[in-house]
Amino acid sequence: MFKIGEFSKLTNLTVRALHHYEELEILLPKEIDTVTNYRYYSADQLAVVNKIKFLQQIGLPLKIIKTIIQSNDMKLLESHYELRETEIHDELEELKKKQNIVKIFKEKMKEGNFMEKYNVELKVMPKRSVMAIRKIVPSFDDEHGLWTDLYEEFMKQNGKMENPPLGVTIYHDKEYKDSDIDIEVQSSIVGNYKDTDDVKFYETSEFTLASVTFNGSYEQMPEVTQAIASWIEANDYVISGPMVNIAHVSPAQDPNPDNWITEAGYMVCTD
C-alpha cells in the first residue's frame, strides 16, 4: 500500500487531482486510516489511473470516464470511441475552415488589407408570413416603387406588421443584370389577407444566409459582396439561392445615407 504522496509520484498526478478523483468517485483510496485520515492506494490501482489518463487524452470528460470505468462495459466504451471519433472529425473540419480563413487574411495582408472591414455572419432565416410583390423592373432604382405599392395595399387591407417588420428584398435573377431586373420585396405581417393581382400573402421557406450588416450608402456593395465571397470560399459553402437585402434603416425611413443600416447576403448551403 502507498500513501497518497507516494502514489502521487508513481502516477504523476498531484495530490489535489487524487482528491478530486475521490470526490467524483472515479478513483477511491483502498483504505482510509480512521485515526489519521491518511489515504492509501494499492499497486493495482495504477491500471485504473492509466485508463483515466488515456480517456482524458482522447477528450472524454470525467463524468463519462467514471461511467465507463464503473460499468466495465466494452460496448459502452466502443460507442464512446465512435462518438469521439466523429467529434474529432468535425473539430478537424472546423480547424481546416479557420486555416483557410487565416490563409485568405495573410494574402490580404500582402495586398495591404490588414483587417476585414466587414464581418460575415451565418444565420438561419426562419419561416415568415409575408406580403410580397415580385416584378421585373427597368432598373434597381425602381425597387422604391415596389415598396410604395406594397405599403399602399397594406393600408387598404388595414394590415398589421410584425415587430420588426423586416423589409426584405430578393434579387431572383441567376446572373447580374442592370436592366429588366427580377425583384421581390417582402414585409413580415400578422394575420390573414386577400391576394391581389400584384400583392401576394404567403409563408416563406426557411433558408441559411451568409450576410454582412453595414452602415452607410450602397456604394459599399462591391466590397460587401467581396467579403461574403471570401467567407463562402474559406468556409466551404456554396451559393444556393438569390441575393437578399434586409433594410434595417432604409432610405424611406431616413433620407440621410449616413444613417442607413443594410444587411446584404446570399442564400448558402454546404457543398
TrEMBL record:
<dbReference type="InterPro" id="IPR047057">
    <property type="entry name" value="MerR_fam"/>
</dbReference>
<dbReference type="InterPro" id="IPR011256">
    <property type="entry name" value="Reg_factor_effector_dom_sf"/>
</dbReference>
<protein>
    <recommendedName>
        <fullName>HTH merR-type domain-containing protein</fullName>
    </recommendedName>
</protein>
<dbReference type="Pfam" id="PF06445">
    <property type="entry name" value="GyrI-like"/>
</dbReference>
<dbReference type="InterPro" id="IPR029442">
    <property type="entry name" value="GyrI-like"/>
</dbReference>
<keyword id="KW-0805">Transcription regulation</keyword>
<dbReference type="GO" id="GO:0003677">
    <property type="term" value="F:DNA binding"/>
</dbReference>
<keyword id="KW-0678">Repressor</keyword>
<keyword id="KW-0238">DNA-binding</keyword>
<dbReference type="InterPro" id="IPR009061">
    <property type="entry name" value="DNA-bd_dom_put_sf"/>
</dbReference>
<dbReference type="InterPro" id="IPR010499">
    <property type="entry name" value="AraC_E-bd"/>
</dbReference>
<feature type="domain" description="HTH merR-type">
    <location>
        <begin position="1"/>
        <end position="71"/>
    </location>
</feature>
<keyword id="KW-0804">Transcription</keyword>
<dbReference type="Pfam" id="PF13411">
    <property type="entry name" value="MerR_1"/>
</dbReference>
<dbReference type="GO" id="GO:0003700">
    <property type="term" value="F:DNA-binding transcription factor activity"/>
</dbReference>
<dbReference type="InterPro" id="IPR000551">
    <property type="entry name" value="MerR-type_HTH_dom"/>
</dbReference>
